[in-house]
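Batch manifest, entry 17 of 40.
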Amino acid sequence: MIGRGLARIGLYLLMSLIPLSAVQAEPILIAHRGASGERPEHTLAAYERAIDQGADFIEPDLVLTKDGVLVARHENEIGGTTDVADHPEFADRKTSKTIDGVAMTGWFTEDFTLAELRTLRARERLPDVRPANRRFDDLYPIATFEEILKLVRAKEAEAGRRIGLYPETKHPSYFASLGLPHQAALLDLLGRYGYQSEADPVFIQSFEVGNLKALRAASRLRLIQLVDAEGGPTDLPGTTYADMLTVQGLTDIATYADGLGPSAALIIAPEGPTALVGRAHDAGLQVHVWTLRMENIFLPAQYQRADDPQGRGDFASWVRAIAATGVDGVFSDFPGQAKAALESVR
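Output type: structure tokens
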């Protein structure tokens, strides 16, 4: 046992000395919420499958519990992704809230302790689109961020390669207003597991700006400013994402972030590729595009297939088209299939 432990320590030391560019080809492949096209998202099973399929990074969306623990959920409202509605003991927790200007009714992680959340089980978020995933409903608990870190460490030792982490802080201003800021808990956990500098395989992402600036002041870990084709950061109500994608806007982003996370619609418009990748690179920013999915409902018209029994389109061609724009990374719900498509053009 001692020999095996020393071997693992030696492996981590060796891997930490190898630049990421030497062991990971471009664009990097980020498993969006794990292999979420094949398992319920944000479960350890989804992350493990993504790692086994060769993903370079896994992406947990992080929200907080009432007692300040980071857990992986797409949103803090969990009525659609867990069996909470089947628990009569939590019936009185159902409530209505306004999160980032959007009114919603359901159950929210910040109203549960971790112990209470651990009694719930995860369910497929898109059952109509991914009915096959429903066979995994109610099998897996909600994962904590620390459990994800432990999984990554174990899989690194098993596979002999670095596995990156790409956490997103969800609704950071909202959680901070409740006295539950992401920053301290996130940086503390990452630090305890050895992630402390820009050389470590970590990107922290957010659609907001203020928390990224606060993270930059407190950490050397790499940061990504997420942007969409519409709207703007919740914490800057007078600013749109369009404003942020001008030459000056990208220059401003580069003062606190290392990269840009645009939606695919900002990279390839209906009329063809945009100039965003080049502008971002000129500003010194990496570009990691989200999210590439196989189903027709998520694909541009030219990549859809009407005759596929699973409702899937020409995913490989879509992945290759995005890669051809020069992006530095891609998010996908289907890391195995995306990896095969990327490898076909390398």
